[in-house]
Amino acid sequence: MLYRIIKVSDIKEVVNVHYDTRCLNAKGIFAMLGKPFLSQYYKIVIEDRYSIVLGAEGDDGKIQGLCFAIIDSKKHDANLKKHKFQLAWSAISSIVQKPVVLKNMIDRYKSLKTEDDKFVVSHGTRIGFWGWSPKYKNPNASIGLLRACLHILKDIGVRDVFIEVDQFNDISYQVHSFLGAIPVKKMILPDGRERIVLKYELLNLDVR
Length: 208
Hints:
Layout: E1 2-5, H1 11-20, H2 29-32, H3 35-47, E2 51-57, E3 63-70, H4 73-82, H5 84-90, H6 92-97, H7 100-114, E4 125-132, H8 139-155, E5 160-166, H9 170-179, E6 182-188, E7 194-201
């Protein structure tokens, strides 16, 4: 298993990993959006100077897992707003198939504008996504990928890292708790989901 930096040339496999994990977050906006949107989104993320995107490459050369961190959430969200038209256009096919997607996207965009932390932490450093394709079951390597991302963040001087976990995602919550993340906030999303914000205090953790 090789953990490495993801490049734009990996987008197709990155999108497949994210798309295949929808069963774990079936109620989120990203679970409603198709591959055209994810391709555009990850192109922006990978090229963003405030993102660190890691992938787990198996012996077959395929990306099996993905973890990306946003070093400066405020600047990253500002960059997403600059690409709002490209993102909206890439979501057209999903909106046609499921019109409710449009309302959810508008709500998400409004949250970015107001920085109200209604959906995600809008300040500091956060984990944007951590997932493993269900086609490749390897829990140890999946946790190793998360550790690798946290290790890089600690090495470059980040002190605290936030991550949001939906209440129903027990496994993810247990993993983060096991690794030392502490809950700092609970919120109710507009669709009724309960979400817990956890924080890694990297100075106090051994993430090797």
